[in-house]
Design brief:
Ribonuclease domain-containing protein; 6-stranded mixed beta sheet; two-stranded antiparallel sheet; hydrolase; about 150 residues; alpha+beta
Length: about 150
């Protein structure tokens, strides 16, 4: 009886540690008490680690390391890097930023690329937006929110 009770207590403690660990690792970004951007370690090969600085264009915005994007978004980044070919006719089209969620820039500054969504019959809601200054943004909710992609 005592052994069973100890086993249950150990299992409960292990489960609690797992919950705390997973909860603490669930976000890519945060802020310090001074409002400075913080980041969790990026994936290997992304160029951003725990001590990396966030580029000025990404400052104050949620970020995601390229290696932590969904596989389809990483594939789209690779297509952009190669210059295509792209699976959708609208890939590479000017993104007008009508929602004003990205910094305001001249017309033609931003371009959009489709991130395929498995099971979707159309282009879906996911996109990569690029800027002329080397910016990369990811949205998975059709331009409602964006994360700066750190490469």
């Amino acid at each position: 009886m005592l052994l069973r009770s100890a086993t249950r207590a150990a299992a409960a403690a292990l489960l609690m540690c797992l919950v705390v660990l997973l909860t603490g690792c669930s976000s890519d970004t945060g802020t310090t008490s001074t409002g400075a951007a913080t980041r969790s370690p990026a994936s290997p090969g992304s160029g951003y680690g725990p001590t990396a600085t966030v580029p000025g264009w990404a400052s104050g915005r949620a970020t995601v390391a390229a290696g932590r994007l969904p596989a389809e978004a990483r594939n789209t980044l690779a297509l952009i890097d190669r210059g295509g070919p792209y699976p959708y006719a609208k890939d590479g089209a000017v993104f007008s930023n009508f929602e004003k969620e990205l910094p305001r820039e001249k017309s033609g500054y931003y371009h959009e690329y489709t991130v395929t969504t498995p099971g979707s019959r159309d282009r879906g809601a996911r996109r990569i937006i690029t800027g002329e200054g080397g910016e990369f943004y990811y949205t998975d909710d059709h331009y409602q929110t964006f994360k700066a992609v750190l490469r």
